[in-house]
Amino acid sequence: MVTKKIIMGSDHAGLSLKLKVIEHLNERGIEVVDVGTYTADSCSYPDYAIALCKKIQAGEAELGILVCGTGIGMSIAANKHNGIRAACCSDTFSARMTRMHNNANVLCFGERVVGAGLACDLADIFIDTEYLGGRHEARVQMLADIEAAN
User: Which residues participate in catalysis according to the annotation?
Assistant: First the structure.
């Protein structure tokens, strides 16, 4: 296992799935810091992407998971932050490859897209997969260079 602590967040549309994934990760012995939301009241997904990304940028954890209706809005919001490489995944192959090749540090998925079983599998694979580095390092550095230039 790569990490023992991750940050999680969701909006109202991802709350139920987030809670199931948190329970699953806790059963694995992984500490989860939940940045909200905590109710089903309508809210804005960027608020929770911001809260999660700030914690990762501050070094409080290496990885995060964001859940909304589709995962798309969260991934867009998260990718606006320096040093964040968020990937919206709804299949296990993509979750594995984004860690191995892109050194993604935030996984996003949608409660309206994936069920609880798949969401837990995605989280496990994302957390347990290590970045390969090597030939992929130059491309990941290109992403950092794009951030720095913009």
Answer: 68, 101
